[in-house]
Amino acid sequence: MVGAVVALSMLSGCSFSWGGDEEKVAAKKLGDKGTACDLPVHFTPATSWTAKAITQATVEQMGPLGHQGPLTPVCELDAKPAGHIGFLIVWSGTKGAAAPGSKSHTLMKQFVTAENFESNVKFREIKANGLPATEATYTVTDLSAGEIRPERALAVMTKQGGVVIHLGGLNADEHKAMLPAFEQAKRTLGLTSE
Predict the structure, then answer these.
(1) How far is CA 108 from CA 28, 104, 127, in A?
(2) Residue ranges of the domains in the chain?
(3) Confidence band (pLDDT; 50, 70, 90) for 50?
(4) How far are the Cα atoms of 16, 18, 28, 38 from residue 21, in angstroms, in the given order?
(5) What is the reported pTM?
(6) Superfamily name and number for 2-191
(7) What is the DSSP letter of 97?
(8) Which residues are CB-neighbours of 176 under 8 A, at least 6 positions away?
(9) What is the mean pLDDT of residues 20-46?
(10) Is the dihedral of CA 93, 138, 125, 86 positive or negative?
(11) CA 42 to CA 160: how far, in whole Å?
């Protein structure tokens, strides 16, 4: 997945920062029309993280790394401006387990199973700001780095298909430092107008 993270960071689209004139963006959340990523869900990103839309052309250039289960990446939030190494990536899809009307648990299971060298997987049915969701915590063995990294993901279903918000990180320390950003996304999550 580190390769996917690097590929996403090099190939993604235009950037969007939540700094600047806060009064103009106070009513909007990432995912709303007019923000860096037009998504079926919206949430408030962590301070200083920058968001970039991932185009279909970028996904095609990524080859196999551009898919995980029935999903493709659509938005990347980079933690570097906040002093961390890692990304919060939003994935979406409309087919198979991601089709409208499917269950978030089924989607989450397929997403995690498609991860390479995953283990210690735990699923929880939760409410993310009132939305029914499935959260997964698991570890991934990075053979090239010779280490085991924690991962966290959240799946929700919308009328426009399934969405997964995924947090990785360079290593366990970076993942832990970035968890508040994941929790904030979960706490402020909502559906965009459908």
Answers:
(1) 27, 6, 15
(2) 2-191
(3) very high
(4) 13, 9, 12, 20
(5) 0.85
(6) Mog1/PsbP, alpha/beta/alpha sandwich (3.40.1000.10)
(7) G
(8) 150, 169
(9) 81
(10) negative
(11) 13
CB of 49 within 8 A of CB of 79?
Answer: yes
Give the Cα separation of 79 and 168 in Å (integer): 11
Q: Give 6-66 as a DSSP string.
A: HHHHHH---EEES-S-HHHHTT--BBBTTSS-B-SEEBPPPTT-EEEE--HHHHHHHGGGG
d(CA 28, CA 106): 30
Q: CB atoms < 10 A from the CB of 126, how many? A: 13
Q: Which of 92, 81, 83 is nearest to 42 (CA)?
A: 92
On whether the CB atoms of residues 163 and 37 are closer than 8 A, the answer is: no
Q: What tokens appear for 30 in the block?
A: 């990432």
Question: What stretches of 32-187 adopt beta strand conformation (E)?
Answer: 41-42, 50-53, 72-78, 87-93, 118-128, 131-142, 147-158, 161-167
Q: Which residue's structure tokens are 């499935």?
A: 134
167 vs 65, more confident: 167
